[in-house]
Amino acid sequence: MTDNELSKPLRILLVDDEELVRDFLTDMLTAKGFLVQAAPTGEVALQLARDEPPDLVLSDVNMPGMDGIELLSLFGEDADLDGVPFFLMSGNPDEEARGLQAGAVRFFHKPIADGALLVRAIEATRPLTALEDGLYRAVLEATPAGVVVTDPDGRVSWANEAFLTLSGYALSELQGRKPGDLLQGPGTDAVTVTRIRQALAERRTCTEGLLSYDKRGQPYWATLEINPLNVGGTHLGFFAFVRSSMPQARGTALGLTVPQVPAARDGLSSLHKHLAAAMTCLTEAASEGGAPQELHAALVSVLTEVARLQGITEWIHDGLADLSSDSRPPLPDLPALD
Predict the structure, then answer these.
(1) Secondary structure class of 246 (helix, strand, coil)
(2) Which of the pair, 319 or 14, is modelled with greater confidence?
(3) Cys-Cys link to 85, which of 125, 147, 265, 284 (CB 3.0-4.6 A)?
(4) Residue 45: what pLDDT?
């Protein structure tokens, strides 16, 4: 994305049958540096868009003749207009679910009292313009990691095919929703979620591991790297890389994973026993001056790390046991550190 592309004003097609609303929103958005073209009906808006496709549409839902959802549908059927970010607004809160299901990126309740929220949501669509074209989209689609872009409020604007495959959701089902509302479940760690939310509130990068769930309710372990998206001093939202360490075969993910955990646990238990025995011998030798204190301290560190890894395998095993009804062999008792 070039500096010229970033500084170029976004062109907004505003559609509302109420003149006062059109004038108010036009003045507010123009003052923020956007180019606004207003239309009183869906029919007029569609013709204006076909003459010169806008960067974004902000449309009322309830209008005489063609309503906002019908206009959105017709945009989707036009090769030149499909993919243009579409915001809907209405004084009827019951329209929100219908609008988002139809493919709207965002929904705003009228009257729009928080102009700053609307402006941030519009600005968040700016990187998506580049994503739809050329190199940026090609690179993000080609990466094996899932990629998710959100607006400043954490609502999904775009995701690549790898993430859609991992989550099982279509892009239209994710857009306008917070990922956690769809991907978290009974095994998701609340403390980790709190750390992620704190990082988002502070607009800083964070990397976390989180048990997540796909559309079918199947769990998978996701490593998340979440970064703030700041362009030209403006906070546009966040982008996240999502990597899964569990197999992608939905029906066998747990079946392949569970048997590996007892084996790792048994191996660490055996290693712990041998290290503990060596530790006993070394302690006796050290007390008699027959072993250097540095070696003694090093073995203490190794034994501590083994104990930590044992705790991790215990945690993984307990979490998977809660999620799976698969039978598993009995596990030996772990020796405790003195």
Answers:
(1) coil
(2) 14
(3) 125
(4) 96
Q: Specify the DSSP class assigned to residue 155.
A: -
Alpha carbon 179 to chain centroid, angstroms: 5
Domain contains 216: yes
The band of 292, judged by pLDDT with boundaries at 50, 70 and 90, is: low
> In what helix (H) or strand (E) does residue 223 lie, and over which residues does it extend?
strand 219-231
Indicate the range of 125-139, 200-214, 242-256, 259-273 predicted with least confidence: 242-256
Gap between the Cα atoms of 122 and 176, Å rounded: 13
Cross-strand pairs, 87: 58, 106
Q: Kindly report, residue by residue over 18-63, the tens digit of the pLDDT.
A: 999 999 999 999 998 999 999 999 999 999 999 999 999 999 999 9
- Domain containing residue 205: CATH number: 3.30.450.20
In a domain, 329, yes or no: no
CA dist 194 → 40, 187, 191, 198, 252 (Å): 45, 15, 5, 6, 30
The structure's pTM equals 0.44
Same domain for 119 and 22: yes
Domain boundary among 195, 222, 251: 251
Under a CB-based contact definition with an 8 Å cutoff, are residues 90 and 62 in contact? Answer: yes
Query: Residue 9 corresponds to which tokens in the numbers above?
Result: 């004003």
Pairing type for strands 35-39 and 56-60 reads unpaired
Which domain does 296 fall in, by range?
258-323
Q: What are phi and psi of 195, to 5 degrees?
A: -65, -40
Say how many domains are in the chain. 3
Under a CB-based contact definition with an 8 Å cutoff, are residues 164 and 183 in contact?
Answer: no
Last residue in a domain, options 233, 251, 269: 251
Tokens of 32: 């923020």
Residues 113-136: tens digit of each pLDDT: 778 888 888 877 765 444 545 556
Residues 217 and 312 in one domain: no
